[in-house]
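Quick illustration for those who missed Monday's session on complexes.
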Amino acid sequence: MRFIEGTRAVTEGELQVNNITPHRVTTFYRKQISKTDYYEQLRRIVEPSIEEFESPGSLDTSGEHANTVLPGLQHKYAQTGLLLVTDRCASYCRYCFRKRMVGKSSNEIAPDFAQVARYISQHPEMTNVLLSGGDPFVLSTAKLDEILDHLLPIPHLDSIRFGTKMVAYEPKRFEDLALTSLFQRIHQAGKTAMVVTHFDHIGEISVDAERRIRSLHAQGVQFLNQSVLLAKVNDDPAILAATFTKCHQIGVRPYYLFQARPVKGASHFQVALRRGLEITRGINQRLSGIHKTFRYIMSHYTGKIEILDLGDDGRVYMRYHQNKAPEKIGKIFSRPHVETACWLEDLPEG
Ligand code: SF4
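Prediction with iron/sulfur cluster bound:
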């Protein structure tokens, strides 16, 4: 098997035991990153590394199992349902926080959308559903339509979100005319169709991606972007500021910059919190007011934590952006800083 560090003989068994995600990259993406000046950085997104055998961590950093209410449906925050519709992606990101299931035969995928719809119907507090996985756009449009058959009649859902990196990996997928009808169906049902793209680096935003996004945007589809802060890939304020500016230019609003999670086999992608805060400050110094739409977020077991600053008092200041307990949302809290800290648990209480 080819690794970033060179070719090594590795058996299937070793890959399985170590939960190593399969190596798969679309031809489109390989060509796209080869055309940029950032090939060395971007290939880290998709090429396996020996470090994946060694990086410590957990396979469920966000408490996904604990928040699973039905097979394939998570209900962590009152307003949002998270639906796992596939365990496949067009290419596999080496830092994926769902390494436990992507590219593998998983039993975490929703098998019964009628059952899912029944649960959502009984939970009027749920206003939006995020189709995730895996990448929902590896599914046929007919299959996506079938899922929508169950979701669109639910009156209290006001938006249907699709979390996808397909627009980076294979933008041609969005040329499918049936997708236009699918997005129209969502609008006709009185709901908002949202695509959450996943651009980590300006070098991933191809001319084809831009064309497809502009076309869907003109049809009323809303776009948000989430990025992951990744060591040796995009841990540079100039690169991320350029990425977010480009996103805005093509109609995609950056909303989360995620701190990479301590995922087993992927924690080598983590950037220390001190550096992460320097980077976010550097990004904000480069952006105009209308472009500062992102939050630096740790998607933690306890909730989504916005990482605000490292104070002169040596404490890291944070705030719950989302929490299962509504009274905790918006509350600022702090912990003593530790130089090597990359995650909440690395900061001592007190
Ligand atoms: S596309 Fe998303 S789900 Fe698939 S490997 Fe990348 S981060 Fe994970």
